[in-house]
Design brief:
85% helix, mainly alpha, 122 residues
Length: 122
């Protein structure tokens, strides 16, 4: 779910609340911890060296958290400019919610079909 739109939507909505300065970083940190645990569990089964496991977790978390940590960092450090952009993104997501959800459903369906077809060939 590292590239899922769900946490992106959540963080954008969170940054529009009065407690954005505390809730945004808390959400981003929790997201990163969850990614680290998932990556660690997956890489532990790969039989890599400890250094390989650590490097894999770091890269996975860095890439996977960009969509969540990016808006939070922009909000915290760019101030008013970031706030305007985040409001525009939020309005875009509200206006195009049906299309966004349709694309998400299509991607999930394609993944499920691909997995199912892959299971038929095994």
């Amino acid at each position: 779910m590292a590239l899922s739109p769900v946490p992106i939507v959540a963080v954008i909505l969170m940054l529009g609340t009065p407690r954005a300065r505390s809730n945004g970083p808390a959400f981003a940190l929790a997201w990163m911890v969850g990614l680290a645990v998932a990556a660690g569990a997956a890489l532990a089964q790969a039989g890599l060296s400890t250094g390989g496991d650590v490097a894999g977790v770091v890269v996975f978390v860095a890439i996977g958290s960009l969509t969540v940590a990016g808006p939070v960092l922009a909000y915290l450090f760019a101030g008013e400019r970031a706030e305007r952009v985040l409001v525009e993104i939020k309005e875009f997501m509200i206006d195009h919610n049906a299309v966004i959800m349709a694309v998400v459903c299509l991607v999930l369906a394609a993944k499920l079909i691909g997995t199912g077809l892959g299971g038929l060939t095994d």
